[in-house]
Design goal:
alpha/beta, disordered N terminus, globular, 700 residues, 7-stranded mixed sheet, 14 helices, 29 strands
C-alpha cells in the first residue's frame, strides 16, 4: 500500500497536546551505585508471535542481502530505506526490544512495510515511499541513510502537509523529539510511519531525526540530525534558506544547542521546554548538587547554551514554555543570559508562555508560534547578511555565514568576532568590511560571487587591533581583491611586534601547516566520534596483566555502549589489518599499551607522553605504568588531518544516561586513569590527572 495518504487536519492541533516523557525519575536517578538500565529491559512476547516475526525477519534479511549485491544506482540509493526495517526488527528480536503489548502489532506493521519496500526495489516497482511531494496529497513516511560515523543505517521521519499550490521549494522544519527510553528503532518507525504530530503548517515539510536514540541530539546525535537534514535536502525540494530548528522537551534542549552552535543554518529556531545547560537544570530537576572537577566545568561550555547566547543575534528565535512546566527553567535561563549582558550586547529573548499549561504545547500559543514562523519565513533576507556577531569557545563551532574563525588564543575562553559589510560603491570602486576580533588569532572572510555589486573591484578590510591603540592607528587596513569568479576570500592572521597586535593577510598559495588546533582537530576526546572512526584492538599480551584486563573490559564496554546508546556498530580491526586507506579516511582509536598494540608503539615517540613498562609520564608528572593508563586524543602522527585516540570511547557513562543534561564530555584532551579503582557507572577508574592541550597540542 502507498504511504501517500490524506491526513485529517481537522485535528491539526491534536499533536500540540502531546505530553512528552520526562527526562528521568528525579532524585532516585542520583544513585551512582544503583543505575537502572537505559534502554530498559523489555517484555516477553508470545512464542507464536516471536516465531512469526523471526520467520518474517529472516525473509526480509534475505531480500536485503540480495539487494546489497545489486550495484545499480537506484538500489544503492534506496536500499537504506529498506535496511532500516530489517535493522529495527533484528534488534527488537535479539535484544529484547519489546516494551509494550502494542509493540507486537507494531513489529508486524514494520515487517510488512519492510517486505513491501524490498519487493518494490527488487522488482523495479514504484518507490512510492520516497515522494515526490504532491499538490493535494499529504506525505507521511520514513526514510533511511547510511551514516558517515560507523556505516550504520539510521532512520528519520518525514511529514509533508500539502497546500494545493505549486512550489519550487518548500520550507522545512527539523523537529527534535522528546526523550523516550523505550523509543528504539522499532517504536520510532512504527510511530513515524503514520504519526503526523506535531502538525506542520500547510506547505511545510517536517523532518524527524531519530538522533541516535536518547542523547539530546548531541555528539553522535548531533551528527545524525545534520545528516538526516542533508539526506532530506537531496530527496525533497527544500528551500536551503528556509529550514527551522525546532523541538520540545529533550528536543527543545536539542533545538537550543543546534541554534546557538549553527546560527547560520536556520531561518528560525523554536525551542520548547527541555534544558539549556547542565548545572542549574540538574539542581532544579534532579535536586542534584554537582561537584565537578575543573576540567568537567570547562567542558560544560561545549553544550551549555547561555555561554553562546549572543549567537542568537544571528538567528530569529521563539522560545516556548508552559506556564507551570518545571522545564520553563530552560528558556528562563536563556532569557537571563540574553538580558544580563553588558548594555551594548543585551537583547530580549522572545519567550511565549502557554497559560496554565504544564509539559505540553498549549494550542493557542502553538498557533502564535506558527504565525511568527510564517512571518519570519516570508520575510527572510535573500542571501547572506551584512552583519555577523559570532561567539565561540572551541573551533568545533567556528563558522557563521561568511565568517570562519580559524584560530583561538585559548580554547574554552570566549572568542568573538563582530563584523559589518558596507556593499555600496565608494568613489574608488571599493566595498568595506570592518572586523572586531577578540580572543581570535586567525579568521577567514568568504563572500560568494554576487554578494558584492558588479562595479566593486576590491574590498577594503579594516581589522580592529584593540583599545590599546590610538584612534589613528587602531585599525589594520587590508585591500582584498576579487577572485576570478568575483568571489572574495581573505584569511587574516594575527602577529605581534614588540608585544603589539597586528593583522596580516595570508597568501592563498601558502599551504604550510604546523601542529595546531583547528576545526575538527581541537578535542576533546569525544570529538573523535563525530566523524568516521575505527577501533584498533590489541594483538598481543601487554606490559601488565592488570592493565590488559582493564583494556579488554573497557574495549568491550565501549563497543557495547556505542551499540546500545548510539544505535550503530563500531568497526573493529586488528593492528596488522589496519590499512593506509583506513588512516586516510578515519579517526583511529588504539586500545592497549606499546607492547600489546604495535600501532601505539609506532607513534609513541610523536605523542606528548612517555610510556614504558615502568612509567607513564605526561605534563611533567610520572605515574607507575603497572596501574596507570592514558586516555587521550591527538592529531594522528601518521595522518595529522585525523585524530588518534588512546583507550577511550565516548566519555559519559551509564549514570549519565539517566538524564540528558548529564550527557556531555566527561574527560578533556588527555587523562591518566588509575585502574586500582574499578570502573563504575561514572568513571573508567580514578582520574589521577587530566587536562587540555594548548593551541599547539602541547600539555598546558
Amino acid at each position: 500500500m502507498s504511504r501517500f495518504r490524506r491526513i485529517s487536519f481537522s485535528l491539526a492541533l491534536a499533536s500540540s497536546l502531546l505530553t512528552i516523557p520526562s527526562y528521568g525519575d528525579g532524585p532516585a536517578d542520583n544513585q551512582v551505585n544503583s543505575v537502572r538500565p537505559v534502554p530498559p529491559s523489555g517484555i516477553e512476547i508470545s512464542p507464536e508471535l516471536r516465531s512469526e516475526l523471526e520467520a518474517g525477519h529472516e525473509q526480509l534479511a534475505r531480500l536485503v542481502s540480495e539487494l546489497k549485491k545489486n550495484r545499480s544506482t537506484r538500489v544503492t540509493k534506496y536500499l537504506p530505506d529498506v535496511e532500516i526495517f530489517e535493522k529495527a526488527l533484528r534488534l527488537a528480536l535479539t535484544e529484547n526490544g519489546f516494551f509494550e503489548p502494542r509493540d507486537g502489532e507494531n513489529a508486524k506493521r514494520v515487517l510488512v512495510e519492510g517486505l513491501r519496500r524490498a519487493d518494490f526495489l527488487r522488482s523495479g516497482g514504484e518507490v512510492d515511499w520516497a515522494g515526490p511531494l504532491s499538490l493535494r496529497d499529504d506525505l507521511v513516511t520514513v526514510r533511511g541513510f547510511r551514516s558517515k560515523l560507523d556505516g550504520s543505517v539510521q532512520p528519520y521521519g518525514v511529514v509533508y502537509r500539502a497546500n494545493g499550490s505549486v512550489q519550487n521549494s518548500v520550507r522545512a522544519d527539523v523537529w527534535c523529539r522528546g526523550r523516550s527510553e523505550k523509543g528504539l528503532e522499532l517504536q520510532f518507525l512504527a510511530q513515524r510511519m503514520t504519526a503526523t504530530d506535531p502538525m506542520p503548517a500547510p506547505g511545510v515539510l517536517m523532518i524527524h531525526p531519530l538522533g541516535r536514540y536518547c542523547n539530546g541530539n548531541k555528539l553522535a546525535g548531533e551528527v545524525d540530525t545534520l545528516e538526516a537534514l542533508e539526506h532530506a535536502k537531496g530527496e525533497y525540494p527544500i528551500d536551503a534558506s528556509g529550514v527551522a530548528i525546532r523541538g520540545f522537551s529533550m528536543g527543545g534542549a536539542a533545538a537550543w544547542h543546534l541554534a546557538v552552535h549553527y546560527p547560520d543554518r536556520w531561518f528560525a529556531a523554536n525551542p520548547g521546554a527541555g534544558f539549556s545547560e547542565t548545572p542549574k537544570f540538574l539542581n532544579v530537576f534532579q535536586s542534584e548538587k554537582l561537584e565537578p572537577a575543573p576540567y568537567e566545568q570547562i567542558l560544560w561550555k561545549l553544550y551549555d547554551c547561555p555561554y553562546w547566547v549572543n549567537n542568537l543575534k544571528n538567528l530569529p528565535t521563539i522560545a516556548y514554555s508552559g506556564e507551570i512546566d518545571k522545564q520553563k527553567q530552560a528558556a528562563d535561563v536563556m532569557a537571563e543570559a540574553a538580558w544580563n549582558q553588558p548594555e551594548a550586547d543585551r537583547f530580549e529573548l522572545t519567550h511565549l508562555i502557554g497559560p496554565r499549561t504544564a509539559h505540553k504545547i498549549e494550542p493557542n500559543t502553538g498557533k502564535e508560534i506558527e504565525r511568527l514562523l510564517g512571518l519570519l519565513y516570508a520575510n527572510r533576507s535573500a542571501g547572506a547578511p551584512t552583519t555577523v556577531d559570532f561567539t565561540t569557545y572551541t573551533l568545533k563551532y567556528n563558522q557563521c555565514h561568511w565568517l570562519t574563525i580559524d584560530g583561538l588564543e585559548k580554547h574554552w575562553q570566549p572568542a568573538r568576532v563582530q563584523s559589518i559589510v558596507r556593499k555600496s560603491t565608494t568613489e574608488n570602486g571599493r566595498a568595506a568590511v570592518t572586523v572586531h576580533p577578540r580572543g581570535v588569532t586567525s579568521f577567514t572572510l568568504r563572500f560568494d560571487p554576487g554578494f558584492f555589486p558588479e562595479d566593486i573591484s576590491e574590498v577594503f578590510v579594516s581589522v580592529d587591533r584593540g583599545e590599546d591603540f590610538p584612534a589613528d592607528s587602531r585599525y589594520t587596513q587590508i585591500k582584498a581583491k576579487l577572485r576570478s569568479d568575483k568571489s572574495v576570500r581573505v584569511r587574516l592572521v594575527q602577529t605581534k611586534v614588540n608585544g603589539k597586535i597586528d593583522w596580516v593577510e595570508r597568501s592563498p598559495l601558502d599551504e604550510s601547516q604546523s601542529l595546531a588546533k583547528v576545526h575538527d582537530l581541537q578535542g576533546p576526546i569525544d570529538d573523535a566520534f563525530m566523524s568516521s572512526f575505527l577501533f584498533v584492538k590489541p594483538t598481543a599480551t601487554g606490559q601488565h596483566p592488570e592493565l590488559d584486563r582493564w583494556v579488554q573490559a573497557e574495549f568491550e564496554r565501549a563497543v557495547r555502549e556505542w551499540h546500545r546508546q548510539m544505535r550503530g556498530d563500531i568497526r573493529v580491526v586488528s593492528a596488522e589489518d589496519l590499512k593506509d586507506t583506513d588512516l586516510d579516511q578515519n579517526n583511529i582509536v588504539l586500545w592497549g599499551d606499546p607492547k600489546s598494540n604495535p600501532r601505539i608503539a609506532a607513534i609513541l615517540g610523536k605523542l606528548p607522553l612517555q610510556w614504558d613498562a615502568g612509567k607513564l609520564a605526561i605534563g611533567g608528572k610520572t605515574y607507575e605504568a603497572s596501574h596507570h593508563v592514558p586516555a587521550m586524543i591527538y592529531p594522528n602522527p601518521q595522518n595529522p588531518s585525523r585524530y588518534v585516540v588512546l583507550n577511550s570511547g565516548f566519555t559519559y557513562r551509564e549514570y549519565d544516561y539517566l538524564n540528558n543534561a548529564r550527557q556531555v564530555p566527561k574527560l578533556p584532551d588527555w587523562a591518566v586513569i588509575d585502574i586500582r579503582t574499578a570502573p563504575d557507572a561514572r568513571w573508567p577508574g580514578k582520574v589521577a590527572a587530566a587536562g587540555f592541550f594548548d593551541e599547539a597540542w602541547q600539555v598546558r
